[in-house]
Amino acid sequence: MTIRVLIADDQSMIRSGLRLILEDQADIEVIAEAADGTEAIRLARRHRPDVCLIDIRMPGRDGIAVTAALAGPGVADPIRVVIVTTFDLDEYVYGGLRAGAVGFVLKGSGPALLVEAVRAAEAGDALISPQITLRLLRHLTPVAAAPARPLVPLSDRELQIVRIIAKGLTNQEIAAELFVSLSTVKTHLASIQHKLGVRNRVGIAAWAWESRLHGTHGVPDKDL
Length: 224
Prior knowledge:
Blueprint: E1 3-8, H1 12-23, E2 28-34, H2 37-47, E3 51-54, H3 63-71, E4 80-85, H4 90-99, E5 103-106, H5 111-122, E6 127-128, H6 130-140, H7 156-166, H8 171-178, H9 182-196, H10 201-210
Parallel strand pairs: 1-2, 1-3, 3-4, 4-5, 5-6
Helix pairs in contact: 2-3, 3-4, 6-10, 7-9, 7-10, 8-9, 9-10
């Protein structure tokens, strides 16, 4: 099945770049582009894309207002929105997520993460850039939170990857650090998600922080 995407960004070069990245994938098609927030809402409601990629700073209505209009709590038939921006200010991150965004990706995160975010959004999942995930967890994870026990104990390699994810590294960076292939990293991530009962790397990172595995001296319970 082809994932239909709308791109909204006030810079034509950015829109062209995003289109090239996405349409290089056999399962993704860009069906519309918008140069401002008002146009983004109009085109999204007209074409009903599977996923909208929305910039934060745009003329007319900004990305948060567009997200609220398309995916907010009061929207009867919401459209999945991933915010793609250069700016990772807390007010944008929290504002976008509260407005209904299912993803928040920095433009400098690379093509692979962008594609992954689109696919995650279409599947009803969420993906946030690792750098942003790290900061969110620092703010939101309770110090005394009790981590859930994995369904199956994690292997030493899986615990190693969990710690790296909690530091905010991408899949490509994990592969480089461990000297393994990207496909091997993805296989480990799938296993970790299954064992922890979480749906994405955000859930893995949250578990790592709750388990105190985010620091260099974090030592997991021997039964994990």
